[in-house]
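1st attempt posting a full record on here, be nice pls
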Amino acid sequence: MEATLAPQKTATDQATLALEMLHTSRARTLSMVGPLTQAQIDYSPGAGRWSIGEILDHLVLAEAHNRKDITRLVELSKAGQMPVVRRSLGEINISPAFLPKCFLPFLELPFSIISTIIPVSFREAVIRYRVFPAVTADTMTPRKQREAGALRMDLTASLTEIECLLETHRHLDYEEMLYQHPILGTNSVPQLIRLLALHEQRHQEQIHDILTDRGFPARS
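the predicted structure (as tokens):
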């Protein structure tokens, strides 16, 4: 009797699974911050530390940047061109916390080489867990004291936009569309969406720390 091979998941399947992961992460974030007042959203646990509102705005900005790149990949694919987007450290200057950003231009090539040999699981762990401190990219630095309702709406709308983008072009091969960055490595569209979900989970831990901070304001 011949063994039956399990069907391989298609690129669309992988994108759907990644979207489900992001959807689950977003639902948890919204449940964590849904009951909060504006004062609680704006509370910072210390000098130089983000408030919950700033964390949420950072998530919105990071997702907007990635959605822009996914849109570009879709456009390239539809035009019959090689669907690859490359971002330099000058454009997205995320960096390890111990490394001054002024050194980044000199480390672009070494980081690019290292990222090709680092396992995907390790790269995902770096994104997910705060044992690897990082400094956010300048373009994703959050705005202060944004209105709480607007932040919640932006988080919901941002996810909807990504879902609509992928659904509209579901006939395309998302695994062939590649995003490249010296530190983040080479990622297909499903992998990029998965990184967004892991990034959000990382910041959920940060939100939890603020919610349990002894100085966190009581609901008035």
